Amino acid sequence: MSTTTTPAARQVQPAEHAHAAELAFLAAYDDGPRPPGWRLTPRAVVTFIVGSGGVALELPRSARRDDLPRTLTVTAKFVGERALVERCVVTLAGERGLLLVGEPGTAKSMLSELLSAAICGSSELVVQGTAGTTEDQLRYGWNYALLLAHGPSAAALVPSPILSAMRTGAVARVEEITRCLPEVQDALVSILSDRRIAVPELSGTADATVPAAPGFTLIATANLRDRGVSEMSAALKRRFNFETVGPIGDLAQEIALVQRQARATLERVHAPFAVDDAVLEALVTAFRDLRAGQSVEGWEVERPSTVMSTAEAVAVASSLALAAAYFPGDRDVVSLLPGHLLGVVRKDDPADGAKLLGYWDGAVRRRAEDGARLWRRLWELRDVLTD
Ligand SMILES: Nc1ncnc2c1ncn2[C@@H]1O[C@H](COP(=O)(O)OP(=O)(O)OP(=O)(O)O)[C@@H](O)[C@H]1O
Ligand SMILES: [Mg+2]
């Protein structure tokens, strides 16, 4: 019987399953030195995340195997500066904590998932930070039935994902760390400096401390719109390298990403993707103009207080594509765009609908007057925003 398990159908595959073929290829492709506990070399981790730039990588003759293709073009997953990804990888190779900070929807979680999948083969050792997160969730808890029946023992201990990562030398992730209370966050200080967790209930036994195996490290993410990183204790801040993840700089790259991700959403539900490139371009342009407070032409735009993230743009593009797939011929997709934009713009402040109207009366009208057909159509749809 085969020992490999086929992952069951899931709405979302973890990165290590979704990209298993690329990870296996890269492990064979680059057999250079790896930090302790790493499955890939630091360079291969970076290639996995930012892609091979459209170039097909060829396995060296000595590394060829029947279960691997001879050549493979590694897809770009995170769109952004290669230097940023390199810095993240170097931080982790030094077994330091990595804190990814940025506005919502800038792919911080995605980057942390890709890094952990590439480095240790698992992105699933994760704690989701909330206002209700307790120290137990970062350290360990107990199976109370066993605890009451037999007293404290290694068998009754319920490890947190972080403790599991320490045992196996893996990468643990803490999502939205700044949403945890500062005193709870501080449980990580001793984990990151002493590299062990003490279990006083088991003192006197071999299980009284759990040391971290080589390779253990931590990636945390923090959203700048939540309670800020400024409230983190100085002791904890010092144990992390901070990296700021920003929005995608290049229009064409952002359009391509939005299209790729929206297509993937439609593929998951087996529906055809039928949204014109021009519509996607208008959608992404509007997002970028509103995000930046300035149109591509340099005209001033009033910024809504919500972030207008790429993640939201992907969600709108997917909705347009789903509408086109499930209600074909009912309406043209363009006519749905202003309503979706309004929904996003109003998320933080309902009064921001007026700012979108201002964008219509400014940039959209001027583009329409310049004769661009799609923008003319969008200008005609202005009424949608005034209801
Ligand atoms: N630079 C980028 N590269 C690739 N995908 C991106 C990028 N920016 C945004 N995305 C898209 O945004 C989605 C959401 O990203 P993710 O949830 O990782 O963001 P986040 O920064 O963790 O947001 P939040 O702060 O709200 O948790 C990704 O799955 C992807 O579709
Ligand atoms: Mg996130």
From TrEMBL:
Record SUPFAM superfamilies: P-loop containing nucleoside triphosphate hydrolases (SSF52540)
InterPro entries per record: ATPase_dyneun-rel_AAA, CbbQ/NirQ/NorQ/GpvN, P-loop_NTPase
**A Pfam short name:** AAA_5
Q: Which domain of life is it from?
A: Bacteria
Every ATPase dynein-related AAA domain range: 97-240
Q: What protein is this chain from?
A: AAA family ATPase
Task: Please name the source species.
Answer: Micromonospora humidisoli
